[in-house]
Amino acid sequence: MKARSLLLGxxxxxxxxxxxxxxxxxEQVTPAYVREHPKEWSVEVTxxxxxxxxxTIKHDVEKPKYHVAHFAVYHQSKLIATSDIPSFGxxxxxxxxxxxxxxxxxESKFDLSDGDVDGSSDDAIPMPGLTIIHQFxxxxxxxxxxxxxxxxK
Length: 153
What we know:
The protein is of the alpha+beta class and 153 residues long.
Protein backbone atom coordinates (compact mmCIF):
# COMPACT_ATOMS: atom_id res chain seq x y z
CA MET A 1 0.00 0.00 0.00
CA LYS A 2 2.85 2.38 0.91
CA ALA A 3 4.60 1.66 -2.40
CA ARG A 4 1.39 2.32 -4.33
CA SER A 5 0.89 5.68 -2.56
CA LEU A 6 4.51 6.60 -3.20
CA LEU A 7 4.18 5.66 -6.86
CA LEU A 8 0.95 7.64 -7.20
CA GLY A 9 2.57 10.65 -5.50
CA UNK A 10 5.56 10.50 -7.85
CA UNK A 11 3.24 10.21 -10.85
CA UNK A 12 1.23 13.28 -9.80
CA UNK A 13 4.41 15.26 -9.11
CA UNK A 14 5.79 14.33 -12.54
CA UNK A 15 2.61 15.45 -14.28
CA UNK A 16 2.48 18.73 -12.39
CA UNK A 17 6.16 19.49 -12.98
CA UNK A 18 5.93 18.94 -16.76
CA UNK A 19 2.63 20.82 -17.02
CA UNK A 20 4.17 23.83 -15.33
CA UNK A 21 6.78 24.12 -18.09
CA UNK A 22 4.25 25.10 -20.73
CA UNK A 23 2.27 28.32 -20.77
CA UNK A 24 0.11 29.89 -23.47
CA UNK A 25 -0.68 33.58 -23.75
CA UNK A 26 -3.31 34.88 -26.15
CA GLU A 27 -2.75 38.35 -27.56
CA GLN A 28 -5.17 40.34 -29.72
CA VAL A 29 -3.44 41.97 -32.68
CA THR A 30 -5.31 45.06 -33.87
CA PRO A 31 -4.39 47.72 -36.43
CA ALA A 32 -3.39 50.00 -33.53
CA TYR A 33 -1.13 47.27 -32.11
CA VAL A 34 0.54 46.81 -35.51
CA ARG A 35 1.14 50.59 -35.77
CA GLU A 36 2.64 50.58 -32.24
CA HIS A 37 4.96 47.63 -33.10
CA PRO A 38 6.21 48.34 -36.66
CA LYS A 39 9.48 46.44 -36.11
CA GLU A 40 7.51 43.27 -35.30
CA TRP A 41 4.42 43.41 -37.53
CA SER A 42 3.11 44.60 -40.86
CA VAL A 43 -0.26 43.79 -42.38
CA GLU A 44 -1.06 44.53 -46.01
CA VAL A 45 -4.59 44.17 -47.36
CA THR A 46 -5.45 44.36 -51.06
CA UNK A 47 -8.44 43.57 -53.22
CA UNK A 48 -7.56 41.06 -55.90
CA UNK A 49 -8.86 40.84 -59.45
CA UNK A 50 -10.52 37.61 -58.29
CA UNK A 51 -12.75 39.69 -55.97
CA UNK A 52 -11.15 38.29 -52.82
CA UNK A 53 -9.55 40.32 -50.05
CA UNK A 54 -5.86 39.31 -49.87
CA UNK A 55 -3.84 39.55 -46.65
CA THR A 56 -0.07 39.56 -46.23
CA ILE A 57 1.10 39.43 -42.62
CA LYS A 58 4.80 39.85 -41.89
CA HIS A 59 6.20 39.00 -38.49
CA ASP A 60 9.75 39.73 -37.31
CA VAL A 61 11.04 38.28 -34.04
CA GLU A 62 14.15 38.69 -31.85
CA LYS A 63 15.22 35.09 -32.39
CA PRO A 64 14.00 32.27 -34.64
CA LYS A 65 10.69 30.78 -33.52
CA TYR A 66 8.47 27.84 -34.32
CA HIS A 67 5.28 29.25 -35.84
CA VAL A 68 1.89 27.69 -36.40
CA ALA A 69 -0.48 29.67 -38.63
CA HIS A 70 -4.12 28.76 -37.98
CA PHE A 71 -6.75 30.05 -40.39
CA ALA A 72 -10.48 29.45 -39.89
CA VAL A 73 -13.07 30.49 -42.48
CA TYR A 74 -16.65 30.98 -41.38
CA HIS A 75 -19.53 31.45 -43.83
CA GLN A 76 -22.94 32.38 -42.42
CA SER A 77 -21.77 31.38 -38.91
CA LYS A 78 -20.66 27.94 -40.08
CA LEU A 79 -17.04 26.81 -40.06
CA ILE A 80 -16.32 25.80 -43.66
CA ALA A 81 -12.54 25.50 -43.77
CA THR A 82 -9.45 25.43 -41.57
CA SER A 83 -5.77 25.39 -42.27
CA ASP A 84 -2.92 24.81 -39.82
CA ILE A 85 0.57 25.40 -41.17
CA PRO A 86 3.60 24.83 -38.92
CA SER A 87 6.95 26.35 -39.85
CA PHE A 88 10.38 26.99 -38.46
CA GLY A 89 10.75 30.73 -38.76
CA UNK A 90 13.65 33.08 -38.93
CA UNK A 91 14.28 36.46 -37.33
CA UNK A 92 13.05 38.53 -40.27
CA UNK A 93 10.61 38.03 -43.08
CA UNK A 94 8.22 35.45 -41.65
CA UNK A 95 5.37 36.02 -44.09
CA UNK A 96 1.88 34.54 -44.11
CA UNK A 97 -0.74 34.88 -46.86
CA UNK A 98 -4.46 34.20 -46.98
CA UNK A 99 -7.52 35.41 -48.89
CA UNK A 100 -11.19 35.73 -48.04
CA UNK A 101 -14.40 36.79 -49.71
CA UNK A 102 -15.85 40.01 -48.28
CA UNK A 103 -18.90 38.14 -47.00
CA UNK A 104 -16.71 35.83 -44.87
CA UNK A 105 -14.59 38.56 -43.24
CA UNK A 106 -16.69 39.21 -40.15
CA GLU A 107 -16.37 35.80 -38.48
CA SER A 108 -13.17 34.35 -39.96
CA LYS A 109 -10.00 34.23 -37.87
CA PHE A 110 -6.26 34.06 -38.32
CA ASP A 111 -4.02 33.10 -35.40
CA LEU A 112 -0.25 32.88 -35.41
CA SER A 113 1.53 31.15 -32.55
CA ASP A 114 5.17 31.68 -31.65
CA GLY A 115 7.09 29.05 -29.70
CA ASP A 116 10.75 28.63 -28.83
CA VAL A 117 13.09 26.34 -30.75
CA ASP A 118 16.26 24.56 -29.74
CA GLY A 119 19.02 24.18 -32.29
CA SER A 120 19.24 25.72 -35.73
CA SER A 121 18.62 24.85 -39.36
CA ASP A 122 18.02 21.15 -39.90
CA ASP A 123 18.63 20.39 -36.21
CA ALA A 124 15.96 22.76 -34.82
CA ILE A 125 13.16 21.30 -32.73
CA PRO A 126 10.16 22.99 -31.07
CA MET A 127 10.57 23.34 -27.31
CA PRO A 128 7.93 23.27 -24.60
CA GLY A 129 7.54 26.53 -22.77
CA LEU A 130 5.91 29.85 -23.47
CA THR A 131 3.71 30.01 -26.56
CA ILE A 132 2.17 33.29 -27.64
CA ILE A 133 -0.91 33.06 -29.84
CA HIS A 134 -1.36 36.29 -31.81
CA GLN A 135 -5.05 36.55 -32.70
CA PHE A 136 -6.16 38.55 -35.74
CA UNK A 137 -9.68 39.48 -36.72
CA UNK A 138 -9.25 40.03 -40.50
CA UNK A 139 -12.20 42.43 -40.76
CA UNK A 140 -10.41 44.89 -38.45
CA UNK A 141 -7.64 45.34 -41.05
CA UNK A 142 -9.83 45.96 -44.11
CA UNK A 143 -10.24 49.63 -45.05
CA UNK A 144 -13.88 50.72 -45.07
CA UNK A 145 -13.71 51.92 -48.69
CA UNK A 146 -12.59 48.42 -49.74
CA UNK A 147 -15.69 46.96 -48.07
CA UNK A 148 -17.96 49.51 -49.78
CA UNK A 149 -16.58 48.53 -53.17
CA UNK A 150 -17.12 44.83 -52.44
CA UNK A 151 -19.83 43.11 -54.52
CA UNK A 152 -23.15 42.97 -52.73
CA LYS A 153 -22.27 45.86 -50.39
